């Protein structure tokens, strides 16, 4: 298994510790979108040791502080994909730290549920179902 993340020079890292590093995403969802990556080549979260998981989340906190100072986002999505069916395209664990901004989408209700578009706003669907049931 080859990882494009391990080809990134340390000069491209925006944060690092003993077990992980962070780089800006090459295809950002929003300004400041950052990836936190273990230095060991593992496919997904479930292969990470407890120490790697802790190191990754230490960097998530550090990256958030940087992004708060640099970009002043209104919120964040933080997560990872596991497996091709979940959208993983690079099989080296990477945690997305995605700054979110008021107005960056019409209706952010449901957050990451928008990975399956019609699941995004579950509240609207529930309200619509209730109004349909009562008619």
Mean pLDDT: 87
- Main sheet properties: 5 strands, antiparallel
- Name the CATH superfamily assignment of the largest domain: HIT-like
The strand count comes to 5
CATH topology of the largest domain: HIT family, subunit A
Query: What would CATH call the class of the largest domain?
Result: Alpha Beta
Low-confidence stretches: 127-131
- The figure for the number of domains is 2
SSE ordering: EEEHEEH
Describe this structure in words.
The protein has 135 residues and is of the alpha+beta class. Helices cover 26% and strands 17% of the residues. A five-stranded antiparallel sheet has the order 1-2-3-5-4, covered by helices on one side. 16% of the residues are buried. Mean pLDDT is 87; it is low at 127-131.
Supply database-style keywords:
5-stranded antiparallel β-sheet; HIT family, subunit A; globular; 135 residues
Summarize the helices and strands and which ones pair or pack.
Blueprint: E1 15-16, E2 20-24, E3 34-38, H1 50-71, E4 75-79, E5 95-100, H2 122-134
Antiparallel strand pairs: 1-2, 2-3, 3-5, 4-5
Task: Please give a quick description of this structure.
With 135 residues, this protein is an alpha+beta fold. 26% of the residues lie in helices and 17% in strands.
